[in-house]
What we know:
By secondary structure, this protein is α/β, with parallel strands linked by helices. The protein contains 28 helices and 21 strands. Helix content is 41%, strand content 18%. Strands 11-12-10-13-14-9-15 form a 7-stranded parallel sheet, with helices on both faces. Strands 16-21-20-17-19-18 form a 6-stranded parallel sheet, sandwiched between helices. Strands 2-3-4-6-5 form a 5-stranded mixed β-barrel. The radius of gyration is 29 Å and the shape is globular.
Amino acid sequence: MDLVPALEEPLKKVLGPATAKVMAEHLGLHSVGDLLHHYPRRYEERGQLTHLADLPMDEHVTVVAQVADARLHTFASAKAPRGKGQRLEVTITDGSGRLQLVFFGNGVHKPHKDLLPGTRAMFSGKVSLFNRRLQLAHPAYELLRGDAEEAVETWAGALIPIYPATAKLESWKIGKAIQTVLPSAQKAVDPLPESLREGRGLVPLPEALLKIHRPHTKADVADAHARLKWDEAFVLQVALARRRHADAQLPAVPRKPAPDGLLTAFDDRLPFTLTDGQQKVSKEIFDDLATDHPMHRLLQGEVGSGKTLVALRAMLAVVDAGGQAAMLAPTEVLAQQHHRSIVEMMGELAEGGMLGGSEHATKVVLLTGSMGTAARRQAMLDLVTGDAGIVIGTHALIEDKVQFHDLGLVVVDEQHRFGVEQRDALRGKGKQPPHLLVMTATPIPRTVAMTVFGDLETSVLDQLPAGRSPIASHVVPAADKPHFLARAWERVREEVENGHQAYVVCPRIGDEEDDPKKSAKKKSPEDEAEKRPPLAVLDVADQLTKGPLHGLRVEVLHGRMHPDDKDAVMRRFAAGETHVLVATTVIEVGVNVPNATAMVVMDADRFGVSQLHQLRGRVGRGSAPGLCLLVSEMPEASPARQRLNAVASTLDGFELSRIDLEQRREGDVLGQAQSGARTSLRVLAVIEDEEIIAEAREEATAVVEADPELTALPGLRTALDALLDEEREQYLEKG
């Protein structure tokens, strides 16, 4: 059944080409249906004003406020040398705070007439900082007159919807466009099964759309939200349930380890016993591997909880059962690191076919994009003949040329860097779909796991292995207390004098070809206020060698170095030949140097909470305690400093991931979590709406079990097609 044509109608026809073009380019809205689902961000009450005190820097905002005073100043400038330049300064207030509006040049005449003291209006513009005060320069505005016919019509109801807007299209213009298309809401097809909707007392979809755009009371908004949250949660969970259902229909070869094979020989070699957590999770994995449909499991583990060991035991079990296992890592540094540590852990068991190899041994090969032709050809030969039981590699493993003898298990490290499509490409390498184990060291709150990785079962490792040391973290306020920074470098010297090593992490490389997209993305409003570019590896390394760390062996590591050079640097650091490694976040994941005990993160406020937690996990991996110093120039009261204080105050990654989520919009989190971003979340808040997501998952599973093709629910199929189209589109855009 087709989408109802009324909602499919292009905005160009309804609103005219100019408005439609801005909506498409700046807000991604193309059809009447898209516009109806562009919900207000919040509502203003006539008698109540936005909090000017809480305005976010550098964001486009809409405020409703009253003019307190307006003054016209004349000044001399290059354009108006005779003191004829004009500047209108208007102060508006809402009871919580005051905000300055500024208009220049010929733009002052109309606002000077309109914005008289006592006038109330909606103002829209970008918040900037001038003389340490917030201001809006040349904001657009719409007067709120209680009497004019048009204004009453447009702002009918006591609540004024404020829409996510852009500089090109103010909130009230979006509101007017929505007024135009609102009658079409009556024709919206309801994706929720009637029994579910009635059973939960949810309003029908057309009513919800009407109430969210034209509410008369707060209860209307609540009804609409409750209903639309269910739509989002349910349609998303149905998509995931269908994926799980399809996966469960696939056949797979059961892989049971031989009783006295490679796995037993490996366990006998281990110098320690597994933690209870590792044993429990291993059992869940082995049970899955023994079934005849593919395992799809997500293994979450705190930094340093021993995930690699659990994954390696699963790989050995599959090799025992006659199959091959592949481990996919997001970067070459990490693939080389995993290869090195797995070969070390296995010892002679990794020397299959070689003199001195054990009778149970297999070959462990590395396959990355930058390997020489001969080494690469040999690795591919070992895979196709089955000589190599275990292969570790980067995206190079997904290439068409790579063939396996009998691929039984795929382990994906750091899932948030691989999309669903890449997982599928590797799974397509098996004669039958291989089992899949996804590892992530970024702890994910339960609801996000259900939303982003809803097609996987979850196992959690939350115990640290014996012998791991706690990490002390401190914020170093470099601007307020410069002597703290000097002390930080002394601490690094002390660690080195005690025979240990240190990392210094910087946000940027500094060879200035930095990808503008990346640096633009890192910028937060606070950076804009600071206007200083983030510190760079090459500059910092240079300053340290000449200054506070003079005489120590300092090396650099970043993503643009040649892979052989990177590997050589890592080897020297791992061997203890280098004292201090100045690096970008290439060391964020999986780098394991037990002798490194200290880390200094420069411009720590430029990193996310989870990223800092990841980075910190690189120290304290041996028996000596770890130290992590978060250096920031941000003022004490800023949100950035509060974030850093949160990281310094707890080592619990799950707690930090909740803080991280609350501070960023879920869209970012979900969007990064999969290259084919699954999020089209508009009203669903992943953390707050935990119950809805859990219930929607149950309902969705039941609906899909009963009717996998959704033949009885045409409205749901339509909504699903729209969601998946968007997902495919976003995936293709991200390439």
